[in-house]
Task: inverse folding
């Protein structure tokens, strides 16, 4: 049984191929960042009105632990990376949101489920990205270790999300990979010239600060016009990672209509969704007060 600290990369796993790919990605991140790797799995809570054999819970626990052990056995683990597992009887989203309170990063696989599957078992990526208190990385099934390391890290600055935390993570990842950062400045159709100019000036100031902090990591700003989600998805075809922020608006449905959510459906590389700093403080304070991290 593992513990969760800020020096931990947490990977949510199940029996899918996507989860194994995510575990391999998480392992590389843990190794590069000097972190522990914690693999977590949530097994289902049987309906209360369903008669169950006496050994049902034992069987569920054994099956869950066997799944975790199987994933560990398929990883090429360096001696320098501590690896632990955690098994809980709860919903996957609840377990991962709780893990995000004190983890350095959450990693999950990119599942392309049908609308019926989402209706029956729920989506993990969307509510997790919307509410998590640490960066969440969604890894596509086709990702392979080392295949895209030399490609740039793309950070999207689309005017919808606060760019500070996203740019910081992008520079950090690019430094680890010895590659460059592309700050993709994608403003939506209809943005006024004053809005575009103000946003460009803000990004230029942030980029200048990152350049001073990490002079070895080149940063290029590219401005694109049109649909931000389409531009970012296209950029993901030649990126090692795309970094996005969660929407800063608090309007109802802001996540469901967000650029980040649309990009998750079409990305060709791992996607990192970074929470706002005030979101991190809010979630941790809520948890400290005994609140439940339930998806909305």
Result:
């Amino acid at each position: 049984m593992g513990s969760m600290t800020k020096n931990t990369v947490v990977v949510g796993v199940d029996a899918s191929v996507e989860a194994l790919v995510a575990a391999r990605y998480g392992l590389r991140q843990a190794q590069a960042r000097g972190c522990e790797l914690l693999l977590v799995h949530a097994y289902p809570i049987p309906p209360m009105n369903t008669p169950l054999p006496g050994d049902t819970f034992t069987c569920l626990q054994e099956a869950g632990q066997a799944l975790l052990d199987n994933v560990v056995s398929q990883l090429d683990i360096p001696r320098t990376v501590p690896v632990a597992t955690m098994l809980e009887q709860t919903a996957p989203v609840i377990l991962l949101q709780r893990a995000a309170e004190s983890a350095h990063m959450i990693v999950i696989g990119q599942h392309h489920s049908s609308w019926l599957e989402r209706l029956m078992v729920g989506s993990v990526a969307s509510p997790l990205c919307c509410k998590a208190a640490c960066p969440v990385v969604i890894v596509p099934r086709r990702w392979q270790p080392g295949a895209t390391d030399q490609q740039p890290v793309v950070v999207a600055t689309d005017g919808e999300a606060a760019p500070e935390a996203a740019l910081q993570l992008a520079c950090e990842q690019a430094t680890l990979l010895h590659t460059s950062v592309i700050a993709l400045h994608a403003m939506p159709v209809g943005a006024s010239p004053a809005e575009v100019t103000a946003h460009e000036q803000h990004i230029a100031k942030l980029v200048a600060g990152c350049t001073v902090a990490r002079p070895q990591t080149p940063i290029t700003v590219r401005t694109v016009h049109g649909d931000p989600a389409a531009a970012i998805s296209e950029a993901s075809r030649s990126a090692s990672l795309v970094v996005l922020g969660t929407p800063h608006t608090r309007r109802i449905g802001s996540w469901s209509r967000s650029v980040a959510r649309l990009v998750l459906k079409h990305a060709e590389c791992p996607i990192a969704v970074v929470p706002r700093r005030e979101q991190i403080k809010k979630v941790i304070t809520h948890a400290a007060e005994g609140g439940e991290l339930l998806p909305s």
User: Anything to note?
Assistant: The chain has ten helices and ten strands.
